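Ligand: uridine-5'-diphosphate. Inputs:
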Amino acid sequence: MFQNNKQRIALISVDGDPAIEIGKEEAGGQNVYVRQVGYALAEQGWQVDMFTRRSHPEQAAIIQHNQNCRTIRLKAGPSQFIGRDHLFDYLGEFLGEFQKFQQHQGFQYPIIHTNYWLSSWVGMELKKQQPLIQVHTYHSLGAVKYRSISNIPVIAVQRLAVEKTCLETVDRVIATSPQEQKHMRILVSTKGRMEMIPCGTDIDKFGKIGKTEARKHLGVAADTKMVLYVGRFDQRKGIETLVRAIAKSRLRGQADLQLVIGGGSRPGQSDGMERDRIANIVAELGLKDCTTFPGRLDDTDLLYYYAAADVCVVPSHYEPFGLVAIEAMACRTPVVASNVGGLQFTVVPEVTGLLATPKDEVAFGAAIDRILTNPEWAQQLGETGRQRVEIAFSWHSVASRLAQLYTRLLAENPTVTKSKSQVAA
Ligand code: UDP
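Predicted complex:
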């Protein structure tokens, strides 16, 4: 596919490096999205360059993943981790480095796909200086996020303004769920062109290990009731609700109930502090004996943990999409999730799992107990979840839909595909 019309595309994700370890502070769904979309587009013949900022002095400036796909790390501020809320001032430098890179390579990208509001700013500035198509995915909307947190950062005003301009002016904004689409229209702007293309998951990888094998590998007994959380340690992820729900479970003392809270953290950083806060609540509620924190789970670990679990819980206060839910579903594990954002789209209540009101530990406890006490029904939920992911959420189909969109936009705007931007034959 596309062999005769190979195009270069830049995926820009200033704050979300597609080539770093996932599961620690600020490295989550966005990084996975950029990486997987990049790989899948490259497989379909696109020349994909994924741009991010350098966040460590020892990081390679360029990683060649395969013939068609590389990660390029540009300088934008000091080579150290800088939280998203403090990156805006370095975007001018990133933009300059991007332009230098293009100049050095002797071509301009006809199409860029920007990720998160910071990169949308870079894309919009670039578009003032060269003809290009800009497609954007928000990953998180300030207008929604700021309703669910109490300490609104100083950068909020800037972010909301950039998000509005982006929606109103770029060539296409990707909503990853109908819920995100609605939020954009109601809370960001009634103007602008949108298209709904969901996030995806690797359906060949997730789901290839069965429950029995996974439990044997992890040393989990067949009759253990295993409840799993996977994700970053961030208050908005609602892990506290899950812990309190487990404390209220009527299975406590009746069965071997095990809570596994998977995800990386760094001592002294905000994720490390959230992990400590959660560990304190676990101790206060007398759950230490039945709770484990295995740390960051790599790609292989994840397959075993998802497959071994009886239920995977996504208790977020706000979730634009929520990759963890579809990863668990791909592994045939039912999901109990908050009734918010993209989780309302991916998890079909009573069919692939259950939805509960965010922060409502009683509702979460009841939903988890219902699944744990009905193993046959749980199995059905898991099977249907798998089918839903196969039909709607494979990276391959997501990338194909994105590729069709890019191709259409390029065809509608022939001026951007001048010789300067073509890949050498
Ligand atoms: N993840 C991981 N290892 C961990 C914790 C999380 O690989 O220890 C991955 C997880 O599999 C998922 C991503 O991080 O692909 C989290 O994405 P999601 O959309 O659920 O949440 P976000 O981090 O974007 O808020």
